[in-house]
Amino acid sequence: MSTPEDENDAADAARRAARVARIHELMRKHTKPELLRQAYALGLARANAPEQWRKDEIATTLAELEQRAAQRKAASTHPGRTPNTQTGETR
Fold first, then answer.
1. Which pLDDT tens digit goes with each residue over 14-62?
2. Is 49 left (phi over 0), alpha (psi -120 to 50) or beta?
3. Which is nearest to 90 in space by CA: 70, 73, 75?
4. Cα dist. 54→8, 58, 60 in Å?
5. pLDDT category, 5, cuts 50, 70, 90?
6. For residue 83, how many other CB atoms are within 10 A of its CB?
7. pTM (two decimals)
8. pLDDT digits over 56-79, tens only?
9. H, E, C per residue of the chain
10. Which residues contact 50 (CB under 8 A, 6 or more apart)?
11. Do 90 and 78 meet the contact criterion of CB atoms below 8 Å apart?
12. Integer Cα distance of 29 and 68 in angstroms
């Protein structure tokens, strides 16, 4: 019998695996300039000079921005439920 903690651990592992898969997909299918354009479109600030970042750093940041955008969208479609920015879950 699984406990709620086991289920949370499994959900966290699944989210991490999906994030890693998305980063690999971004790295494989897009050039660095394309990744930068996508990241800027999702709100990446130019203050930290992302043009000088490595491609994998941009892809990682883009995957995080996409996840946050999905969390905001989920929160807006379910009023009263607050997204947990660490786990992606809503309460």
1. 989 999 999 999 999 999 999 999 999 999 999 989 999 999 999 999 9
2. left
3. 75
4. 33, 7, 10
5. confident
6. 19
7. 0.73
8. 999 999 999 999 998 899 888 876
9. CCCHHHHHHHHHHHHHHHHHHHHHHHHHHCCHHHHHHHHHHCCCCHHHCHHHCCHHHHHHHHHHHHHHHHHHHHHHHCCCCCECCCCCCEC
10. 36, 39, 44, 57, 58, 61
11. yes
12. 21
Residues forming a β-bridge with 57: none
Residue corresponding to tokens 């479609």: 77
Angle (CA) 71 15 79, round 5°: 25
Q: Which amino acid is at 37?
A: R
Alpha-carbon Rg of the chain, whole angstroms? 15
The residue type found at 5 is E
